[in-house]
Amino acid sequence: MKNILLALAFCVVALNLTFAQDTITTSQAKDFVGEFKYVKGLVAAVTTTKSGMTYINLDAKYPDNIFSAVIFKDFKDAFDFTALNKCTSIVLYGKIEMYKEKPQIVLKEASQIIRCE
After folding, report:
1. Domains held by the chain: number
2. pTM for the full model?
């Protein structure tokens, strides 16, 4: 039993270290284009366009946003927008891409939102 608890504790510590090492700020995201990373930031605005795309702007509102998460209309049913609109800080996971000279992550499933506080 002692060995099982030690193994479990080791796994928890290893997972936390991996999460911490792969978490970057919104201002660091531009240096990791093409990589999968955890990105943390403050939610400045959540907006949905007439075409149904949702933008989560982090650390500043558009057009001064530092980083965005994008939810295309086809994937919107996977997300709880009531909870998302209450977030003040967030951690997202995904592949960092550049769009109009700003880094972003496209969200396709709710599991990409790691933390929403």
Report:
1. 1
2. 0.82
**Position 17 pLDDT exceeds 90:** no
| pLDDT confidence tier of residue 59, bands split at 50, 70 and 90 | very high
Q: CA separation (Å) from 37 to 47, 48, 60, 70, 98?
A: 23, 24, 20, 15, 14
- Strand partners of residue 42: 89
| Alpha-carbon distances, residue 22 vs 25, 33, 38, 63 (angstroms) | 10, 13, 6, 27
Domain containing residue 60: CATH number: 2.40.50.140
Inside any domain, residue 11? no
In a domain, 109, yes or no: yes
Distances (CA, A) of 15 to 2, 21, 23, 47, 108: 20, 10, 12, 33, 23
Task: Return the biggest CA–CA distance within the chain.
Answer: 58
Residue range(s) defining the domain that contains residue 60: 24-116
